[in-house]
Amino acid sequence: MRIKLHNLIFIGMVAGVLIGLGLWALGRSPDETHQAVCTHMLWWLDLFGPTVFMGALKMIIAPLILASIVSGVTSLPDMKELGAIGWKTLAYYFCTTSIAVVIGLVLVLSIGPGKKAASLEVRNRRVAELEARRQAYQEMAGRPALSDDGVPTADYLAWLAQEEGEQRPGDDEAGRFEKLAGARDRTAGDIFKDDIVSPLLMNPFQSLSANPPNSLGIIFFALLLGIACMVVGKRAGHVVSFFQGLNAVIMHVTHWLMSISPFAIGCIMAGLVARNGPEIFQTLGWYCGTVIGGIVIHVGVLVTIAAVIGGVRPLRLFQGIREAYMIAFTTRSSAATLPVTIANTTEKLNVSPKVANFSLPLGATVNMDGTALYEGVAVIFLIQIYGGLDDVSITMTAMATFLIFITAVLASVGAAAVPDAGLVTMVLVASAVHLPIYYIPLIFAVDAFLDMFRTSTNVLGDSVGAIVVNRLERSRLGSPAGA
Ligand code: ASP
Q: Are 395 and 383 in contact (CB under 8 A)?
């Protein structure tokens, strides 16, 4: 009896978790031999999971985005069709991402994970720390840290920011913290110029070879190339067939990679669990529960949209994209999952390749519902814990909530489709409401875990987008309905 691929992937995930728990226990044993075995095993797991499997997926995504968009655009009957697909896709992305953020905000404000007992402990520890900081500052500067009416002085706050920025993260967190610090102190104009305009116009060879690839630049160049091929017509025939051929070939490579995915996914899972163990959830349990609860509700919204507008019933939807869903969950990268997302939606859900080849690469790059939801929840959670302390003079007014909504949508668009990307763009949301970024490391510990949920939701959102646009355009494209 042949076991189906999606069942094998599931078995791989469960086996990975069990092996990971075993290794985690082994790594904590006082016996040095046990620890050495654990380190050795982790090396092999890293080799087969992140290095080989994710490396191979990443190897093919840059040429795949280029080839799929050019072949998608050039297979459309005319420019009018491209415009119709384009605006419907973007309208869908904007609506679903906004819904995701609203769900996250409503949940975090009503549950209040930052006000639960475990969070109060964190806050109390911080209050004690700040007390010590104040003393240190007063001794060093020879003047009070707070003004007569109890407001922290600007000089004290500047000193505090410097001290915290330098000392807070531990060694293994320093790299991530540096990324956060690098993203701070930029105006909206800088972000627009450096993160949107410049990448769009980057030399395409540079975009393809960057690590991670510059997806925005590749998409823009591919659109230009595809539109130009349509305008030039017959003389561009060879260019068009080259990209259509390249697209078909890369999809074939994707199937080869999918066949080794159960084993690789087991390795990635085992490595993650072995490193983090179950104990990280103690302090951040309510926070994780709020993010996951929001994601479950948003998945319900997406499934409803797929059924009502896209005409695809929930069971059929999940059966169609289960491989992509599980690969996204484990690799934590929408970009690495993209080849499988295209294969699943076109082969199992009857989405026309004309729509899928265009909308899925775009969606993997800019449409991140899970990330947007998570960013809003995370920032409000931190404000709930630390709000009102010396350096966090934020009150959750309607204006602050609105700012968080807008910046969470923008930050999700700007996040790269790679693991941990959402954590870095969260700086935009935190800075908008003046939450110092040195508070963000509190949630580092559970970020990889939550990244699994947000990435799989991102991929689900992209797939539902392709299904919806396919249904709306099917009369013109002449492709079968999704259901
Ligand atoms: N890992 C996510 C993705 O690839 C982005 C994020 O970190 O939220 O879709």
A: no
